[in-house]
C-alpha cells in the first residue's frame, strides 16, 4: 500500500509539471508561480462525465451556471435583427455534450444513419429533424436509464460563450473562426470529424461550425412568446452555431436561426444536454 501511495504521489507531481511546463532553468519564484497557475487551471477545469451505449462512449461536460448578456444589441453592423437586443439571462448548472452527436452514437442508439456525409462515423449526425432528435433522445434514455435532453437556447449560448470562463470571443473559443470551426470554403461544403478543431474555454468542441444544432426552445423575437405555425401545426424551433455551408456572420455565438419540426437538412444536427445530478 505504501508503495502504491508513493507511485500515486509521483504521478501527481508529474502531472503538475506537465501542466505548468516550466523552463529548464526556472527560478524558485517562477516555479511557485507556475505551480499556482497549474493548480488554478486544475480547479477551473470543468468536470467530465462519460456514458456508453452499445459500445459507443461519449463525454459530457459540466457547466457551472451564471448570469450573462444573451444576444446582441441592434447596431448598424447587426445583420440579423432577431439576434437583438442583448438581455440578461440566468442559467443554472447543467451538463452538455463535449461534441455534437456523432453518427457512431446515433447508429448505436437507432440502428440507422440518416446522414448525407457517411465517410466517417465521427462526423456529426445530420439530416435529422427536431422530432427525430427527440425520438433519439427518448431511446437513448431507455438504454442508459439517464435523462438526456436538448439544451435550451439560453444554455447553448452560455456554453458556447465559455460560461464562467468566457473570454468574450466572437466564436466559441476564439476570435479566429478557423481555429475553432469548420465553415464555408474551409470546410469544403461537407461535415468533418468532431474534435478536429480547438475547443472553447470549457473544453467543448464544434459549437461554432460543422453542423447547426437543434435546441429545445421555440423561436420568437426576444421578449415575445413562441407562436404556433399554421404551416405544420407546431412551433418553429431554434438551432444554433452555424454549419459547414455558412460564412462567419452566421456562426457568431449570439446568432440565431430556426426551422420547422419537420425540417431535416444535411447541415443540421444536435448536441445532448442534461440537468446536473443532485449531489454533484
Question: What labels describe this entry?
Answer:
6 helices, single chain, disordered N terminus, 280 residues, alpha+beta, 4-stranded antiparallel beta sheet
Structure description:
It is a single chain. With 280 residues, this protein is of the alpha+beta class. The protein is 26% helix and 18% strand. It is built from six helices and ten strands, in the order H-H-E-E-E-E-E-H-H-H-H-E-E-E-E-E. The strands form three sheets. A four-stranded antiparallel beta sheet has the order 1-2-5-10, sandwiched between helices. A hairpin with a 2-residue loop joins strand 1 and strand 2. Helix 1 crosses helix 2. The chain is globular, with a radius of gyration of 20 Å. The two termini are 29 Å apart. The N terminus is likely disordered.
**Mean pLDDT over the residues:** 85
- Rounded to the nearest angstrom, the radius of gyration is 20 Å
Q: Which class best fits the helix and strand makeup? A: alpha+beta
Helical fraction: 25-40%
Distance between the first and last residues' Cα = 29 Å
Number of helices: 6
Strand percentage: 15-25%
Weakly predicted, low-confidence segments: 1-26
Shape, per Cα inertia axes = globular
Number of strand elements = 10
- H-E string: HHEEEEEHHHHEEEEE
Largest sheet geometry: 4 strands, antiparallel
How are the strands of the largest sheet arranged?
1-2-5-10
Amino acid at each position: 500500500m505504501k508503495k502504491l501511495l508513493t507511485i500515486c504521489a509521483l504521478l501527481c507531481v508529474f502531472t503538475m509539471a506537465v501542466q505548468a511546463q516550466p523552463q529548464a532553468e526556472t527560478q524558485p519564484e517562477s516555479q511557485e508561480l507556475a505551480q499556482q497557475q497549474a493548480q488554478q487551471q486544475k480547479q477551473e477545469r470543468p468536470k467530465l462525465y462519460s456514458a456508453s451505449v452499445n459500445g459507443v462512449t461519449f463525454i459530457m461536460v459540466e457547466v457551472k451556471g451564471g448570469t450573462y448578456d444573451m444576444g446582441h444589441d441592434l447596431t448598424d453592423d447587426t445583420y440579423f435583427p432577431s439576434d437583438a437586443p442583448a438581455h440578461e439571462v440566468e442559467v443554472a448548472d447543467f451538463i452538455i455534450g463535449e461534441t455534437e452527436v456523432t453518427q457512431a452514437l446515433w447508429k448505436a442508439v437507432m440502428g440507422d444513419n440518416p446522414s448525407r456525409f457517411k465517410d466517417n462515423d465521427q462526423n456529426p449526425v445530420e439530416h435529422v429533424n427536431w422530432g427525430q432528435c427527440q425520438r433519439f433522445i427518448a431511446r437513448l434514455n431507455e438504454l442508459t436509464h439517464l435523462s438526456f435532453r436538448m439544451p435550451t437556447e439560453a444554455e447553448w449560448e452560455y456554453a458556447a460563450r465559455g460560461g464562467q470562463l468566457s473570454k468574450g470571443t466572437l466564436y466559441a473559443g476564439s476570435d479566429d473562426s478557423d481555429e475553432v470551426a469548420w465553415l464555408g470554403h474551409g470546410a469544403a461544403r461537407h461535415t468533418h470529424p468532431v474534435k478536429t478543431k480547438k475547443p472553447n474555454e470549457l473544453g467543448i468542441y464544434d459549437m461554432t461550425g460543422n453542423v447547426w444544432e437543434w435546441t429545445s426552445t421555440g423561436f420568437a423575437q426576444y421578449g415575445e412568446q413562441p407562436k404556433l405555425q399554421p404551416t405544420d401545426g407546431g412551433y418553429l424551433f431554434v438551432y444554433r452555431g452555424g454549419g459547414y455551408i455558412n460564412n462567419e456572420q452566421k456562426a457568431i455565438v449570439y446568432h440565431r436561426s430556426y426551422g420547422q419540426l419537420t425540417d431535416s437538412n444535411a447541415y443540421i444536427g444536435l448536441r445532448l444536454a442534461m440537468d446536473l445530478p443532485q449531489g454533484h
